[in-house]
Specification:
Elements lengths: L2 E6 L2 E6 L6 H7 L18 E11 L7 H5 L2 E3 L3 E11 L16 H4 L17 E7 L11 H12 L5 E3 L1 H13 L3 E9 L2 E9 L7 E7 L3 E8 L5 E8 L9 H11 L2 H22 L6 E8 L1 H8 L21 E2 L12 E4 L9 H10 L8 E5 L3 E7 L4 E7 L19 E8 L2 E6 L7 E2 L1 H13 L17 E4 L2 E7 L10 E4 H24 L9 E5 L8 H7 L10 E5 L1 H11 L1 H13 E3 L8 H7 L12 H10 L1
Parallel strand pairs: 1-5, 7-9, 10-13, 13-15, 16-25, 18-27, 19-21, 25-26
Antiparallel strand pairs: 1-2, 3-4, 3-5, 6-8, 8-9, 10-11, 11-12, 14-15, 16-17, 17-18, 19-20, 22-23, 23-24
């Protein structure tokens, strides 16, 4: 029998196996465990190995780059041994090595309970599996295999228009006969057409999964959903790796214009794959059972993932390539789930108001409510919507990454070790840390608390400038003022934690952009604050935002606190609702068509409104009477 010699780090492992054995199985016989989360289907590309010598027959290499193939890399699950062979196992392919590092901030996004599509929409996933026990053909019942499958499906469900791909057709006749006419059909909705995505032998109807993804400008969040039980069974999050091409959308679009679209497309696809790999590996889900993915995000993120022309989004009249892309094969954009699995998008509203806002409306029920609501998504691309069941209007305000913790030197995501709450009492700076450990940095909610507390304590003035004579904590470094939150001896090995004058300025600019956007939208509609029934705050850290501190900063309007509701990551919630309910998915398209997009640039006094909001809490204190009263009482 052929001998296989595996080179793993600093050791060699030999094993003899029959000719025709895959390298993946040979490694298993040698007690070497290679990452292969797709069950040997050649989908995930995690079992990459390098054949250095010997005779092998390689199958599919679609997940490998041209350079890797030239260098001798192949997929262990798709490579068959023909003779003696020497194989090098890269560290990232060895199980337990090269673990994808996505830290505990996923816990902050998780909400692992069922999406709860509720009574307003029916439970009917976009991708369904149906077990079929098909009557065998006879001289009296001699329909073709194709029509026989369709007939049985229509007995289970009303399906006016159905289609099947050639690849599925080719296998159908043998599959039916090999499995005694007992098969499972996976159906996917594509517009008004239902596609038979795949056929499997036997009953596999209890294993069907989907992934909902919130593609934020700064953060990407993924939830793994059991499409049979409708439960969310796990979640993960990470920073958007596109940030290396620019923290803001316009910079990324400029990169696309200069360098092409591949960088942005490949980067976000790989981020999504990383999250999927973690989820399915942790839950023991086979990639071939992952049949669908629903993405929600701003319009530019959708264009980047699809590789569409995005430059027109930043040029008047700000027209995107599309706001409603049709379902496509996930594999077409490099997302590695079931090879025939479908990728869906939440429909966008306009060039700068995306599917994440559509998701927000869907999940909060604004489109069905009599109440007048303002929905504010506090993030890098701040989006604001006002309306009810009769009308809705939206706008967008570029805020930058200040709220996400990535725009400051001591910043971090809302994960273990992050300062998330700050209070200053009697010149004592007090804080809470996620995970009750020594601090490593400060996250977005903590940063907002800090600046608001500094203002309340007189350590920054109304223009946001630090006042060094009021505290020994305020020091100068390389010509710039900073305030030291935590000394080096008190941190978890990260050194001194400080916030700098320029970072405070960036936060104030960010809050000014969002507040000015809300103010302009209200004025354009001739509304006053008292007309609002509720203010819904969405975003990754919304639930950890202190209402009063947000008002002190001038981030949210000065309305009664009982009208302010934190609704969490509505982008991911709406995506899950649509993944689990065809009715909800239809409603999302109705929402996107019914919202009027308002461009702030066209407002004649936009610059004045923005400038007026660049003070704490605002130039016009009458807009923040409760804050002004509190500060007078504190004098």
């Amino acid at each position: 029998m052929p001998k296989v010699k595996f080179s793993v780090m600093d050791r060699l492992v030999d094993v003899e196996v029959p000719e025709g054995t895959t390298l993946l199985d040979a490694a298993s016989d040698a007690d070497l465990h290679i990452n292969s989360i797709c069950g040997g289907e050649g989908i995930c590309g995690k079992c990459k190995v390098k054949v250095e010598e010997g005779d092998v027959r390689a199958g599919s290499t679609t997940t490998l780059s041209r350079e890797e193939i030239k260098s001798g890399y192949t997929l262990a699950c798709q490579t068959f041994i023909q003779g003696d062979v020497k194989v090098r196992l890269p560290p990232e392919s060895a199980a337990g090595q090269g673990k994808i590092l996505v830290d505990e901030d996923a816990q902050r996004f998780k909400a692992l309970t069922s999406v709860g599509v509720g009574s307003s929409v029916s439970y009917e996933p976009l991708i369904e599996k149906h077990y079929l026990d098909i009557p065998e053909p006879s001289l009296k019942d001699n329909l073709s295999d194709h029509r026989r499958i369709y007939r049985e499906l229509r007995r289970k469900k009303d399906i006016p228009i159905m289609q099947t791909g050639l690849k599925v057709f080719k296998r159908s006749s043998s599959l039916l006969r090999e499995n005694d006419w007992k098969i499972t059909a996976t159906l996917g909705r594509r517009g008004d057409t239902t596609e038979v995505i795949q056929l499997e032998g036997g009953d596999t109807s209890d294993t069907n999964y989907g992934v909902a993804v919130d593609i934020g400008t700064t953060t990407v969040v993924a939830h793994l959903v059991d499409l049979v039980s409708s439960e969310t069974i796990d979640a993960e999050a990470k920073y958007n790796s596109q940030m290396k091409y620019g923290e803001e959308i316009t910079r990324r679009i400029h990169h696309v214009e200069e360098e092409g679209r591949e960088d942005l497309q490949d980067t976000i696809a790989e981020d999504i794959n990383d999250l999927i790999y973690v989820l399915v590996d942790r839950k023991g889900v086979n990639l071939k059972d992952l049949t669908s993915i629903m993405c929600s995000g701003n319009t530019a993120m959708m264009h980047f993932l699809l590789g569409l022309e995005a430059s027109n989004i930043r040029k008047k009249p700000y027209v995107p390539n599309t706001t409603r892309p049709p379902p496509i094969r996930a594999a077409e954009v490099g997302i590695k789930i079931n090879p025939r699995g479908l990728l869906y998008f939440m429909p966008a509203i306009g060039g700068w108001v995306g599917g994440d806002v559509t998701s927000g409306v869907l999940s909060t029920g604004i489109h069905k409510s009599e109440k007048l609501s303002m929905l504010t998504d506090i993030g890098t691309n701040g989006e604001i919507l006002i309306g009810n069941k009769d009308w809705m209007m939206s706008c967008a305000a570029s805020a930058g990454p200040a709220f996400e913790g990535s725009g400051i030197r001591s910043g971090m995501r809302a994960s273990k070790g992050a300062i998330d709450k700050v209070e200053i009492t009697d010149d004592q700076l007090m804080y809470s840390v996620i995970g009750s450990t020594k601090p490593k940095g400060i996250c977005g909610s903590g940063f907002i608390d800090l600046v608001a507390s500094l203002f309340e304590g007189g350590y920054v003035n109304r223009s946001g400038k630090l006042v060094p004579e009021n505290s020994d904590r305020i020091q100068q470094e390389d010509g710039e003022l900073k305030i030291v939150m935590v000394e080096s001896s008190e941190t978890k090995g990260t050194g001194e934690l400080a916030v700098y004058q320029s970072e405070i300025k960036n936060l104030i600019n960010a809050k000014a952009a969002i507040y000015a956007g809300a103010r302009i939208l209200m004025k354009s509609l001739e509304l006053e604050l008292e007309d609002l029934d509720r203010l819904l705050i969405a975003g990754g850290f919304g639930s950890y935002l202190d209402r009063e501190k947000a008002k002190t900063l001038g981030l949210i309007p000065d309305i009664p606190s009982d009208k302010v509701k934190f609704v969490g990551n509505t982008s991911i919630i709406g995506a899950k609702m649509s993944l689990l309910s065809q009715q909800a998915y239809d409603q999302s398209h109705e929402i996107s068509e019914s919202v009027t997009y308002y461009d702030l640039i066209d407002y004649p006094d936009y610059f004045e409104e923005f400038t007026a909001a660049k003070f704490l809490p605002h130039t016009d204190l009458s807009q923040f009477s409760s804050v002004a009263v509190k500060n007078r009482e504190g004098d």
